[in-house]
Amino acid sequence: MKVSIKVNGVEYEKDVEPRTLLAYFLREDCGLTGTHVGCDTSSCGCCVVVMDGERAVKACTMFAAQADGHEILTVEGLAQGGALHPLQQAFWDQHGLQCGYCTPGMLMTSYVLLKHKPNPTEAEIREELSGNLCRCTGYNNIVKAVRQAAEAQQAAPATK
Amino acid sequence: MIPAAFDYLRASSTDDAFAHLQRLGADARVLAGGQSLIPAMRFRLARPAVLVDINAVDELNYIRMDGPALTMGAIVRDSDVERAPWIGERGWSLIHDVSRVVADPVVRQMGTVVGSLCHNDPSGDWPAVALAARAELVVRGKTGTRTVTIDQFLVDSFTTVVEEGEMALAVRFPVPDDRTAGSYQKVERKVGDYATAAVAVQVSLDVEGAVREVGIALSAAGPCAVRVTEAEALLKGQKPTADLIRAAAEAASKKSDPQADLRGSIDYKKNLAGVLVSRGLRHALARLGVQS
Questions:
Q1: Could you tell me if A85 lies within 8 Å of chain B, comparing CB atoms?
Q2: Residue A116: how many CB atoms within 10 A of its CB?
Q3: Contacts of A19 in chain B (CB under 8 A)
Q4: pTM of the model
Q5: Cβ separation A66–B55 shorter than 8 A
Q6: What is the rounded distance in angstroms from the CA atom of residue A116 to the CA atom of residue A127?
Q7: pLDDT tens, A56-102?
Q8: Domain B59-174 part of CATH 3.20.20.480
């Protein structure tokens, strides 16, 4: 079947099997390998992407067909004109990643968290990220990074 | 793990979805949030020939307070409930509690309440909650739309009254009065795991402080979520006391019929069901200002 999905502002028109999962569509059909596949069974959150700007979804548990006509934001779409997104900058500053495998999912889940709750408490960040696993167990710095990004975005609300 | 091949149909309206389901019968499954169905398809535990996607059916995307009931359409997400403006009200405290512990926060942004009820996983959260809150389901069938109580709706493991060619359109929760509160108690090894045991409780008191109405239901305690009628009967009409709560907890332990697995032995889980009923009742009563 034909699908037309806008990923990071670019329209991708592809012919896919209905059983093609969104994560594989992004990685293999669009060549956007920033979205990682970890557990492949909706447990780990590595594959989280943002749908229509407001919903974090596990791309391994959604068909590309379901995203037909929708907008998807992946980690590749966060930086603008060479400048890191406040979340990316904060992960850098706070050492919010070790091996980096879970990082795209952490970023995209946090992106939606900050949309709905621009000033989350530490407890709220931990709760919201509880579906994202970091096997390096670097959670403390991840949480600090999300706090930093929240503060940065509040100081400069014009950023995305 | 890629699912077996299937055909995909995107329904544009309830009528459109229903027409597809009527035509395809046993070959079709409704795709709502997909957070249980898609993993099941990936493990090849489910192999529907056709998926009828209802995510674009806007007329099923509503939460309405109309008169005596709160009605949620078939594609209302767990996260919609979590963020609903009324969710902090005491009367909705059972729904409040469950909306924060279904699966994990990302899964909740896709997963739907009605989908969870239709899936009827023995360890699911919403079936027990719907029992305790005495919900009803709106089901569309060949001869029209009917309303069924949650007790009728839940038939057995992964089985409901929704027949081939039919679909559940909405769930209705009775609007609680101002002397109603609930609690959802779930023990899980980690966020996103199946519950080791879970209990849904909702209590309504009369002006004298006696129990006017009570719902107590267990999840992960047998092949299907189950109402502990024995515990409800003990409490109904009585002023809650520590002894009554203990007796209700014992009735729940007795009713619980779990399987042993990595999460615990049968004895442990039976005991836990009782402990959680006790905690849930105390929590609900504390929300009503009653110490027990």
A1: no
A2: 15
A3: 2-6, 41
A4: 0.96
A5: yes
A6: 14
A7: 999 999 999 999 999 999 999 999 999 999 999 999 999 999 999 99
A8: no
